[in-house]
Amino acid sequence: MKRWIASLVIGLIPLFALAANDSPEQITRKVSDDVLAIIKSNEKDPTKVRDLVDARVAPLADYTRMTALAVGRYWRTATPEQQQALTREFRTMLVRTYLSALTVYKNAEVEVKGSRPGAGDDEQSVRTEVSLPGQKPIPVDFSFERTRQGWKVFDISVDGISFIVNNRNQFSAVIRKDGVDGLIKLLADRNNALKNGAAAK
After folding, report:
1. Higher model confidence: residue 108 or residue 20?
2. Where is the signal peptide (predicted)?
3. What total of structural domains would you count in the chain?
């Protein structure tokens, strides 16, 4: 269940800058409501859902920073071309993972529990709980950073497990074995598998 909740909240990231002048807590509440409404009203039209999400992705999240954090120390040794490829595939993975979870979480509820200062002066963490009817809520924390374009999400934690840290551990193992190009290939293969799986439905 936690994996699917992670998939759902990952997909919220591209939409979190829609109200960049609002506080992180206001953004979280507003976007959560909007996304769940999209899920419920378009559940039989995955193409429309995909288009709605893709239309918002590019300008609304700092995917370069997210990818750099997930890749860790290997980011600095990657070439600019490799960094671009990693960011592209990482972004695609986030969006496609989200889309694959939409039908599962059409009846989910997100309750905003409050916010607290983050690790840096320009960071805040918003606490939420995500639940399905009849099931125990799962705590989900959204980490925001203040940028020139407003507040944006750069990490999420599901039941205390950071998405960025979790991916960093996996990515580091792949890079140590197969290099940066090996990680790019792995992400591309995963994205193609998700794409083909969605097309087959």
Report:
1. 108
2. 1-19
3. 1
